[in-house]
């Protein structure tokens, strides 16, 4: 993730060094000259071309373009490499620390959220504070524990749920580079497979604290398609939030097929953030499906040692990651980046003027 920041920093360094200005003629002549000739000066022409490009690409498009399918794939592989992430194993502890270290590397403030379930376990929470309405909180969450028919030693949990966890991490890596009106929390939930234990504990504590959670997006199994191009994402939960996700997906990721399910569904970590259980909050659950019936004909490797990374559809998962990032950025109120080309224009004008030596 540092790679992304480095690329951005390099790009800024590279364009922040206009040629040094030469001798300056009378100010009035400077202005007339700039008006008359500036458009044909190479540095200014380049500046205007870049500026037009910047205007053409919206801040949201720029943000979504930063999401990397390669990084997403790396996260899935790294999570599977722990062997098992079953709640009471060393692999689970390693995965907990991996999430904390990774989120911390994005410059986010990270907290390991302890709860008791046959010992002390942890959810991992990273916070990006909002600049305008910091008390309004939006969450993207995914459970990182896994299970299988051999949970103590072999539970790769690639689709369930390295796929959602990797999306949460990749979205955190990009959104952490931007500013938002409201606060965003990126959360890895633990012990989901034992009955939503970690998310239940988190939501209960958040209600006691009085956290104003407005919207919660939960991703759980978002990367299996059985090779079907007709695969869609089921988006289930509070109506306004489901509608918002589907509208943002249609706008920014038109290649992603979605299906809305309005209501109060069990089955994953959105459950304790639903409006009926957390006053003021709304939540949704994004999950892949290959059939019109949500629970039939889904991943045949579900909860087996064969739920491995090589069986996933990374193109599909990337679209779900983009749609989730767009919805989260839309909800939290993306504040456009400082318009770098606008800041550079005076320098480019100076450069063009400076070269006009009589
Ligand atoms: Zn799951």
Automatic annotation (TrEMBL):
Disordered: annotated span: 1-28
Gene3D superfamilies on file: Zn peptidases (3.40.630.10)
Keyword Calcium recorded: no
InterPro entries registered for this protein in UniProt: M28_fam, Peptidase_M28
Transmembrane segment boundaries: 38-57
Domain Peptidase M28 positions: 123-326
One Pfam family here: Peptidase_M28
Superkingdom of source: Bacteria
Keyword Transmembrane helix: yes
Gene Ontology biological process terms in this record: proteolysis
Single GO molecular function: metalloexopeptidase activity
Keyword list, A-Z: Membrane, Transmembrane, Transmembrane helix
Biased composition (Pro residues): 17-26
Protein's UniProt name: Peptidase M28 domain-containing protein
Lineage: Bacteria, Pseudomonadati, Pseudomonadota, Gammaproteobacteria, Chromatiales
């Amino acid at each position: 993730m540092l790679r992304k920041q480095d690329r951005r920093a390099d790009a800024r360094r590279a364009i922040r060094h206009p040629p040094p200005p030469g001798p300056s003629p009378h100010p009035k002549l400077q202005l007339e000259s700039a008006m008359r000739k500036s458009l044909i000066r190479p540095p200014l022409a380049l500046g205007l071309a870049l500026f037009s490009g910047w205007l053409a690409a919206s801040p949201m498009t720029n943000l979504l373009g930063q999401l990397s399918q390669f990084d997403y794939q790396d996260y899935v592989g790294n999570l599977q490499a722990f062997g098992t992430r079953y709640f009471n194993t060393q692999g689970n502890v390693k995965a907990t620390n991996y999430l904390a270290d990774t989120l911390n590397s994005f410059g986010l403030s990270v907290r390991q959220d302890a709860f008791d379930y046959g010992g002390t376990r942890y959810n991992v929470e990273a916070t990006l504070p909002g600049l305008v309405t910091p008390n309004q909180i939006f969450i993207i969450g995914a459970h990182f524990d896994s299970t299988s028919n051999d949970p103590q030693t072999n539970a790769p949990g690639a689709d369930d749920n390295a796929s959602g966890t990797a999306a949460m991490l990749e979205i955190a890596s990009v959104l952490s580079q931007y500013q938002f009106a409201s606060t965003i929390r990126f959360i890895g939930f633990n012990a989901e497979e034992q009955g939503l234990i970690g998310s239940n504990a988190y939501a209960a504590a958040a209600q006691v604290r009085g956290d104003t959670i407005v919207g919660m997006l939960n991703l759980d199994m978002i990367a299996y398609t059985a090779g079907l191009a007709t695969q869609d994402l089921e988006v289930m939960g509070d109506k306004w939030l489901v509608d918002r996700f589907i509208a943002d997906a249609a706008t920014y990721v038109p290649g992603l097929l979605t299906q809305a399910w309005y209501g109060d569904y069990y089955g994953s970590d959105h459950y304790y953030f639903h409006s009926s259980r957390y006053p003021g909050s709304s939540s949704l659950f994004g999950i892949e499906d290959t059939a019109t019936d949500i629970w039939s004909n889904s991943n045949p490797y579900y909860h087996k040692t064969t739920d491995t990374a090589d069986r996933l559809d990374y193109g599909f998962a990337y679209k779900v990651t983009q749609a989730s990032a767009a919805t989260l950025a839309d909800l939290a109120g993306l504040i456009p980046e400082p318009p770098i080309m606008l800041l550079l224009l005076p320098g480019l004008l100076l450069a063009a003027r400076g070269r006009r030596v009589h």
